[in-house]
Amino acid sequence: MKHLDWTVFVSQTGSEVMSLCTQLGVVPKLLITNNPKKLREDVMFFLKDNGCELKVIPFNPLLEHYLQEDILSSKIITLHGYLRILPSEFIESYKPRAIYNGHPGLITEYPELKGKDPQIRAFEGNYPLIGSVIHEVTPGVDEGDIVHVNSAQNIAATLDGMYDLLKHLSLRCWFEFFTQKLLVDRD
């Protein structure tokens, strides 16, 4: 696999990152987690075997955990289920480049889906459309400029079905984002 000058932040299983790497044929240089117990073992081995460095920071990180040269020097930083608000000083330190977050809620149509657990709220609200967005990270929760959207008709009959549909839409959203931004060479 090719290496991309890319840093990934996760608090969850990391399965989206592994799927994205497999589809794109690239791996990040660095994966940072604040919840190593949630990171799936197969994801950890896949990334390590392909040369990605894994770094653990505290569950409630301080500014100094973010302001490290290996992070700040990355060409791109993405958040995949990273359940923390980044300090504004870190966001400012990374400019003029943007940090990107994937959000599994169609906040372009339904701003009320910003924040935690949009999948549950979308399911309970029986929204006709569902989707995933990628937005630039700002100090506000899901407030940054939207840079990519994927949506579909809501056909979820169960909450598990909603999670599955949104996982698929999120992965497709990230794949299109990376290829359209020419962050990876498509041979």
Structural features, described:
The chain is of the alpha/beta class and 187 residues long. The chain has one domain: Formyl transferase, N-terminal domain (Rossmann fold). The protein contains seven helices and seven strands. It has helices at residues 15-24, 41-49, 63-66, 69-72, 88-94, 118-125, 159-180; strands at 2-10, 26-33, 53-56, 76-79, 99-103, 129-136, 146-153.
Query: Spans with pLDDT under 50 lasting ≥5 residues?
Result: none
Count the beta strands: 7
Radius of gyration (Å): 16 Å
Distance between the termini: 13 Å
Structural class of the secondary structure composition?
A: alpha/beta
Task: Return the CATH architecture.
Answer: 3-Layer(aba) Sandwich
The main sheet orders its strands as 3-2-1-4-5-6-7
Shape: globular
Q: Tell me the number of structural domains.
A: 1
Strand content: 15-25%
Give me the CATH fold name: Rossmann fold
> pLDDT average, as an integer?
94
CATH superfamily: Formyl transferase, N-terminal domain
Number of helices: 7
| Largest pleated sheet | 7 strands, mixed
CATH class category = Alpha Beta
Helix content bin = 25-40%
| H-E order | EHEHEHHEHEHEEH
Structure described in brief:
The chain has 187 residues and is an alpha/beta fold. Helices cover 34% and strands 25% of the residues.
